[in-house]
Structures are given as C-alpha cells and as structure tokens.
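Dear Dr. H.,

I hope your travels went smoothly. While you were away I took the liberty of generating a structure for the chain from your last submission, since the lab meeting agenda had it listed for discussion. I wanted you to have the full record in hand beforehand rather than looking at slides cold. The sequence, exactly as received, is reproduced here:
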Amino acid sequence: MSTVILGIESSCDDTSAAVVSDGVLLSNVIAGQSVHEAYGGVVPELASRAHQQNIVPVVSEAIRRAGIERGNLSAVAFTRGPGLLGSLLVGVSFAKGLAASLEIPLIDVNHLHAHVLAHFIRTAEEVDRPQPRFPFLCLLVSGGNSQIIRVDSPFEMEIIGRTIDDAAGEAFDKCAKVMGLGYPGGPVVNRLAAEGNPSAFSFAKPNVAAYDYSFSGLKTSFLYTLRDRLALEPDFVERHKADLCASLQACIVEVLMRKLRKAAKDLRIAEVALAGGVSANSALRESLRAHAQQFGWTIHIPPIQFTTDNAAMVAITGHYKYLRGDFCSMDVQPYARV
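The corresponding predicted structure, in token form, is as follows:
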C-alpha cells in the first residue's frame, strides 16, 4: 500500500498544497498574493485573510491533480513554523481539521528543515535526479534567513552559521525598495544586474565571527552611497540602476560564499547545496558552480519551482517523518520563531 502525504504550506504569503506518494511528487499547487505589492512588503493581516480564501481551493486542486481521493491520504503534513503567526494558524487549523475528519496522522514540519529537504523531492520525470549525500552543507538563504547548515541525515541538522541581523533576501529587498524597484525586489535586482557592471561600486562587506553573517552594514553602506551621490546628481539612481544592482548583488554573493568556503574547508565537506528563495538568484548559482570547479565540490542547486515557499518540500519532509512514525498531537500550536 502506498504512503501518500498531503503537504500544506502557509508560513508567509503563499498558500500551497502538494501530494507525495512513496516519495514521488504528484502535484504542487501554489497561490500567491499580489495584494502586498502596493505596500512594499507582506502585510500580516492581509496575508492571513488571503490564506483563508485560498486554502480550500488550493488543497482541492492539489488532490485533483494528483489523481487521488482524500481517502487515499496516509497523513497530513503542515508547516508549523517559523513564519507569520496568523498565516501559520490558517494552515495548521485546516490540517488539523482534515486529519481529524479522515482519522489519519498529523505531521508538523519545520519550515527551514523543509527548505533543506527540498533537494530530496523527486518527480515522475526526474525520479533519478541526484540527491545530496550525507553529510553535506546547505546554504539556506531567503528573505528572513541566512544560514549555513550541516546536514547529517533528514532528521539531524545543525545550524553552524546564521545572520546576526538582516538576512540576504532582506538586504536585496530593502535596497531595491530605496531604488524604487518595487516588491519583491530581489528578482528585479537579479534581472537588472545582468545589464550592469558588478565592479562599478563598492559597498561594505561585514565579516563577523566564525560562520555567521551580517548584512546590516552592507545595507547601510548602500544607503549612504545613494545619499551622497544623489546630493550631487539628482538622477543618479535612474542613470546607474543596472550598475547599482550588479554591484549590490556581487557584494551579497561574495559575503555569502566567503563563509561557505570557510565552513567547507574547516569541516572538510565537499558536498554543498543551496536552498531558500535567494537560491534562485542567478549570480549565486553561478558562483556556486565556479566554486565547485575550483574546490572540487559536488553541488546541488534546486529547481526554481522548489526555491520559494512551496508545499512539495513540506510533503517530502512529512514523508520521511511518516516512515519513522514521527507524528504530532492535535493540540500542537504554530510558532513564529525558532
């Protein structure tokens, strides 16, 4: 009998549901929320309301696309945290209700662990896609997190480095906002950077202890550069937008890779993976490929559709937890922070 897991993701502003059968992805449905674009960032109250509207049709569509019935489900896996509490509550409450009605187990999933295990998602078209070998290092970069994680198994993960202030994705978005590029700014910076000179401008590259990160100084350096140049040249941003994006992107990527190089060298681990929303950045991907050639790393870069928040990563994490009988009770509560 097949093990069929429904995954539900609602940690921020994407409502997603996915179905995994015996470790193979059958469907992955995502409903975004464009309402936040007008505010330059995610508005928690609006996000939770949109989740309430989206959760039923998204789950229904995921089950339909998977070609199964609700009665075929073995368990319901859901993102418990970290994330926006109101958004998480929608997903957690729905998962509890569905699991109770079907009398099947409930599986809570850590959002960050799910990003790491996205590398183990298999589709029918790529059932033999290479997966990381343990132990490996995972550079997890997103709007809220920048971490280096040592992964010894699907259940044994140790964060050996993390940001002490802003995350890389946050630095991208905030710098993009002051340039008037809209939200989310990271993808726009990535696109414009392809047309610019990454050496045109120089920004601070904070270097904190061990494998930790800091991006607040870089962000401040960028803002001060704009302030000083705009005082002399009112249309400075518009005239140099591509070069600013290219230089900002190059700086962030170098900060990220410098600590990853150190961790790989110190721990003597040559199996390296990317995860999280910022792992979609083309410059970061190219830098990882260059490092693989230079240092002999075996690298793993997730398909674009599994970089941002998605339920496929929740479902595959639920699959592994189901196999070991790792279930949660109906009184489990979501958490906003780790």
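Two observations you may find useful: The chain has two domains: 4-128+307-323, 136-268. Residues 136-268 form a domain with the Nucleotidyltransferase; domain 5 fold (CATH 3.30.420.40).

With kind regards,
E. W.
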